[in-house]
Design goal:
Blueprint lengths: L7 H4 L6 H13 L3 E4 L5 H11 L5 E4 L9 H14 L2 E8 L3 H9 L11 E5 L5 H7 L8 E5 L11 H13 L4 E5 L11 E4 L18 H7 L4 E4 L1 H4 L4 H21 L1
Parallel strand pairs: 1-2, 1-8, 2-3, 3-4, 4-5, 5-6, 6-7, 7-8
The structure holds 5-iodo-2'-deoxyuridine-5'-monophosphate (5IU).
């Protein structure tokens, strides 16, 4: 069973991870495989954007530390909107330290990420202690991580071997790892979700190393299950219209892929 030929519905039963299952269910029921990267810098903008694009997304990706006015209220509102529109919260923290440190970064500090983010990103670089450290901080909550196995930026140091080793790490920790942030599909394992950033219509880069492909190319050529779109939506003159456009293009490409 190759991941790329399977519907999201049919992949639900391939995994016991409650968040992988939930995400497949949301994608299948809402008919969306769009994740918006909500890279805005105030709570007001974040909450307003999440409410507007909420009906069109399966996942909202945040960089919570770029907010200038973060507070518990930010989290209360985000969680309410996630429940209202049925999407998950995904903090792109890219944990990349020893287990003991990431456990503190996950559960403590100003952001207490473990209390509100369903999913977080993690670098495999430190070895699997990074995963064990995060898991030690969960305390019975339903949480998961996405391993960054390749980056979209030019000159990224993620070699083929690194990508392979991230796949092995994921296979050893399926109780926590939901999938990969990647630019290509190495694993055909239907349990793992492939998230692909660096997606934008009408642009090939941002002048600071970001490299873009279209939603169709991400899904049909690179094997993405979920596309992650930031400025293509947040900086559009009409973010809701843009979200609809990316959503339709991405879901159509997914449907085309599973037909073959
Ligand atoms: N992001 C990437 N590339 C990566 C990883 C994460 O762009 O390889 I891992 C993040 C950075 C930003 C979003 O939050 O995804 C993409 O935003 P734009 O669509 O605005 O470029």
């Amino acid at each position: 069973m190759d991941r790329k030929n399977c519907s999201f519905e049919s992949r639900i039963t391939t995994t016991n991870h409650p968040l992988t299952r939930k995400l497949f269910e949301i994608m299948a029921n809402k008919k969306t495989n769009l994740c918006v990267a909500a890279d805005v810098t105030t709570t007001e903008e974040l909450v307003s954007l999440a409410d507007k694009v909420g009906p069109h997304i399966c996942l909202l990706k945040t960089h919570i530390d770029i907010l200038t006015n973060f507070s518990q209220d930010t989290i209360d509102k985000l969680r309410d909107l996630a429940a209202k529109h049925n999407f998950l919260l995904f903090e792109d923290r890219k944990f990349g330290d020893i287990g003991s440190t990431v456990a503190n970064q996950y559960s403590g500090g100003a952001y207490k990420i473990v209390e509100w983010a369903d999913l977080v990103t993690v670098h495999g670089l430190p070895g699997d202690g990074v995963i064990k450290g995060l898991v030690s901080a969960i305390n019975g909550r339903t949480r998961g991580c996405v391993l960054v196995s390749q980056m979209s930026s030019s000159g990224a140091l993620t070699s083929e071997e690194y990508v392979e080793n991230c796949s092995k790490m994921a296979e050893n920790h399926t109780y926590f790892v939901v999938g990969f942030v990647s630019q290509s599909s190495k694993s055909g394992d239907p349990r793992f979700i492939l998230f692909t950033p660096g997606v934008r219509l009408g642009k090939t880069g941002d002048g600071l190393g970001q490299q873009y492909v279209t939603p169709r190319s991400a899904i049909l050529e690179r094997g993405a299950d979920i596309i992650i779109v930031g400025r293509g939506i947040t900086q559009a003159s009409d973010p809701v219209a843009a979200a609809k456009e990316y959503r339709e293009e991405a879901f159509d490409a997914y449907q085309e892929r599973i037909k073959h």
